[in-house]
Design goal:
mainly alpha, 3 domains, two-stranded parallel ribbon, 7 helices, 46% helix, elongated
Protein backbone atom coordinates (compact mmCIF):
# COMPACT_ATOMS: atom_id res chain seq x y z
CA UNK A 1 0.00 0.00 0.00
CA UNK A 2 1.73 3.16 -1.17
CA UNK A 3 0.35 5.34 1.62
CA UNK A 4 2.04 3.11 4.21
CA UNK A 5 5.43 2.90 2.47
CA UNK A 6 8.27 5.18 3.48
CA UNK A 7 9.50 5.12 -0.15
CA UNK A 8 6.42 4.38 -2.29
CA UNK A 9 8.42 4.52 -5.53
CA UNK A 10 11.05 2.00 -4.40
CA UNK A 11 11.09 -1.00 -6.70
CA UNK A 12 9.30 0.61 -9.64
CA UNK A 13 11.16 -0.59 -12.73
CA UNK A 14 12.52 2.07 -15.09
CA UNK A 15 11.61 4.87 -12.69
CA UNK A 16 14.25 7.24 -14.11
CA UNK A 17 13.02 6.71 -17.67
CA UNK A 18 9.43 7.27 -16.56
CA UNK A 19 10.35 10.57 -14.92
CA UNK A 20 12.42 11.71 -17.92
CA UNK A 21 9.49 10.97 -20.23
CA UNK A 22 7.28 13.20 -18.06
CA UNK A 23 4.88 10.43 -17.16
CA UNK A 24 2.92 10.55 -13.92
CA UNK A 25 2.75 7.53 -11.62
CA UNK A 26 -0.50 7.11 -9.75
CA UNK A 27 -0.32 4.38 -7.14
CA UNK A 28 -3.56 3.54 -5.38
CA UNK A 29 -4.13 1.89 -2.04
CA UNK A 30 -6.50 -1.05 -2.03
CA UNK A 31 -10.01 -0.21 -0.95
CA UNK A 32 -11.36 -1.20 2.48
CA UNK A 33 -7.86 -1.92 3.81
CA UNK A 34 -8.04 1.04 6.18
CA UNK A 35 -11.53 0.26 7.50
CA UNK A 36 -10.85 -2.81 9.61
CA UNK A 37 -11.04 -5.30 6.78
CA UNK A 38 -10.80 -7.93 5.86
CA UNK A 39 -8.38 -6.74 3.23
CA UNK A 40 -9.98 -7.26 -0.20
CA UNK A 41 -7.02 -9.38 -1.31
CA UNK A 42 -7.40 -10.46 -4.94
CA UNK A 43 -10.91 -9.03 -5.29
CA UNK A 44 -10.66 -7.64 -8.81
CA UNK A 45 -13.66 -5.32 -8.91
CA UNK A 46 -12.51 -3.39 -5.82
CA UNK A 47 -8.90 -3.23 -6.96
CA UNK A 48 -9.97 -1.91 -10.37
CA UNK A 49 -12.28 0.72 -8.90
CA UNK A 50 -9.53 1.91 -6.54
CA UNK A 51 -7.13 2.30 -9.47
CA UNK A 52 -9.67 4.09 -11.66
CA UNK A 53 -10.76 6.37 -8.82
CA UNK A 54 -7.14 7.31 -8.17
CA UNK A 55 -6.76 8.40 -11.81
CA UNK A 56 -9.94 10.46 -11.51
CA UNK A 57 -8.67 12.04 -8.28
CA UNK A 58 -5.32 12.93 -9.85
CA UNK A 59 -7.14 14.64 -12.69
CA UNK A 60 -8.82 16.92 -10.16
CA UNK A 61 -5.45 18.26 -8.97
CA UNK A 62 -4.93 21.70 -10.53
CA UNK A 63 -1.14 21.35 -10.20
CA UNK A 64 -1.09 18.51 -12.71
CA UNK A 65 -1.67 18.57 -16.42
CA UNK A 66 -2.48 14.98 -17.31
CA UNK A 67 -2.79 13.43 -20.72
CA UNK A 68 -6.29 11.98 -21.17
CA UNK A 69 -4.71 8.61 -22.02
CA UNK A 70 -3.99 6.15 -19.21
CA UNK A 71 -1.73 3.12 -19.30
CA UNK A 72 -2.01 0.57 -16.50
CA UNK A 73 1.33 -1.09 -15.69
CA UNK A 74 1.71 -3.05 -12.48
CA UNK A 75 3.32 -6.14 -10.92
CA UNK A 76 2.07 -9.09 -8.82
CA UNK A 77 -1.15 -8.26 -6.95
CA UNK A 78 -1.07 -4.99 -8.86
CA UNK A 79 -0.86 -7.02 -12.07
CA UNK A 80 -4.10 -8.68 -11.02
CA UNK A 81 -5.53 -5.21 -10.41
CA UNK A 82 -4.27 -4.09 -13.83
CA UNK A 83 -6.11 -6.92 -15.60
CA UNK A 84 -9.31 -6.08 -13.76
CA UNK A 85 -8.84 -2.36 -14.45
CA UNK A 86 -8.80 -3.13 -18.16
CA UNK A 87 -12.01 -5.15 -17.78
CA UNK A 88 -13.92 -2.85 -15.42
CA UNK A 89 -12.71 0.49 -16.80
CA UNK A 90 -15.06 0.90 -19.78
CA UNK A 91 -18.10 0.12 -17.60
CA UNK A 92 -17.17 1.85 -14.34
CA UNK A 93 -15.08 4.78 -15.59
CA UNK A 94 -15.74 5.45 -19.28
CA UNK A 95 -14.13 8.87 -18.76
CA UNK A 96 -10.74 7.19 -18.20
CA UNK A 97 -9.26 6.39 -21.60
CA UNK A 98 -7.28 3.18 -21.05
CA UNK A 99 -4.83 2.75 -23.92
CA UNK A 100 -3.02 -0.29 -22.61
CA UNK A 101 -2.66 -2.77 -19.77
CA UNK A 102 0.62 -4.43 -18.78
CA UNK A 103 0.18 -7.01 -16.06
CA UNK A 104 3.62 -8.16 -14.91
CA UNK A 105 3.46 -11.53 -13.09
CA UNK A 106 -0.20 -11.10 -12.14
CA UNK A 107 -1.84 -13.22 -9.51
CA UNK A 108 -4.21 -14.62 -12.11
CA UNK A 109 -4.43 -18.26 -11.02
CA UNK A 110 -4.14 -18.35 -7.24
CA UNK A 111 -4.73 -22.10 -7.00
CA UNK A 112 -1.61 -22.75 -9.10
CA UNK A 113 0.43 -20.03 -7.42
CA UNK A 114 -0.35 -21.23 -3.91
CA UNK A 115 -0.10 -24.91 -4.86
CA UNK A 116 3.38 -24.45 -6.31
CA UNK A 117 4.71 -22.53 -3.34
CA UNK A 118 3.82 -23.88 0.13
CA UNK A 119 5.46 -20.92 1.89
CA UNK A 120 3.34 -18.46 -0.10
CA UNK A 121 0.27 -20.63 0.53
CA UNK A 122 0.77 -20.41 4.29
CA UNK A 123 1.20 -16.64 4.11
CA UNK A 124 -1.27 -15.66 1.38
CA UNK A 125 -3.80 -18.49 1.39
CA UNK A 126 -5.63 -17.17 4.47
CA UNK A 127 -5.92 -13.72 2.86
CA UNK A 128 -7.50 -15.25 -0.24
CA UNK A 129 -9.85 -17.44 1.79
CA UNK A 130 -10.96 -14.62 4.07
CA UNK A 131 -11.48 -12.00 1.38
CA UNK A 132 -13.25 -14.40 -0.99
CA UNK A 133 -15.55 -15.63 1.77
CA UNK A 134 -16.49 -12.02 2.58
CA UNK A 135 -16.92 -10.72 -0.95
CA UNK A 136 -18.43 -13.86 -2.50
CA UNK A 137 -20.37 -15.36 0.45
CA UNK A 138 -23.13 -17.04 -1.54
CA UNK A 139 -20.98 -18.49 -4.29
CA UNK A 140 -17.97 -19.68 -2.33
CA UNK A 141 -17.63 -21.81 0.74
CA UNK A 142 -14.16 -22.21 2.19
CA UNK A 143 -15.29 -24.89 4.64
CA UNK A 144 -14.35 -27.82 2.32
CA UNK A 145 -10.89 -26.28 1.83
CA UNK A 146 -10.02 -25.96 5.51
CA UNK A 147 -8.18 -28.84 7.10
CA UNK A 148 -8.12 -29.34 10.84
CA UNK A 149 -4.50 -29.45 11.97
CA UNK A 150 -4.57 -28.06 15.47
CA UNK A 151 -2.99 -29.88 18.36
CA UNK A 152 -4.80 -30.86 21.56
CA UNK A 153 -2.85 -28.09 23.33
CA UNK A 154 -4.12 -25.51 20.82
CA UNK A 155 -7.67 -26.80 21.27
CA UNK A 156 -7.39 -26.34 25.04
CA UNK A 157 -6.16 -22.77 24.55
CA UNK A 158 -9.08 -21.91 22.28
CA UNK A 159 -11.53 -23.25 24.86
CA UNK A 160 -9.83 -21.17 27.57
CA UNK A 161 -9.80 -18.07 25.35
CA UNK A 162 -13.49 -18.46 24.55
CA UNK A 163 -14.25 -18.81 28.25
CA UNK A 164 -12.27 -15.66 29.11
CA UNK A 165 -13.29 -13.45 26.21
CA UNK A 166 -16.64 -14.89 25.20
CA UNK A 167 -17.31 -16.52 21.82
CA UNK A 168 -18.47 -13.28 20.20
CA UNK A 169 -15.06 -11.67 20.73
CA UNK A 170 -12.91 -14.67 19.88
CA UNK A 171 -11.50 -14.26 16.40
CA UNK A 172 -8.77 -16.82 16.96
CA UNK A 173 -5.92 -14.58 15.87
CA UNK A 174 -2.48 -14.82 17.45
CA UNK A 175 -2.76 -11.24 18.66
CA UNK A 176 -5.99 -12.12 20.50
CA UNK A 177 -4.22 -15.00 22.21
CA UNK A 178 -1.40 -12.74 23.41
CA UNK A 179 -3.78 -10.07 24.68
CA UNK A 180 -5.69 -12.63 26.66
CA UNK A 181 -2.51 -13.61 28.54
CA UNK A 182 -2.98 -17.27 27.67
CA UNK A 183 -0.12 -17.79 25.24
CA UNK A 184 1.95 -20.02 27.49
Amino acid sequence: MPSLASMPTAGIPALDQIAKAGWIIIASDYSFAEKGGPHPYMIGEGEARAALDSVRAARQMPELSLDPRTAVWVHSQGGHAALWTGIVGPRYAPDVQIVGVAAIAPGANMANILGANPAADKRLGPYVARSYSRFYPTSLSIRPCVQRRSTPRADRRLVRISAVRGPEKNSGTHRDVRRSGLDD
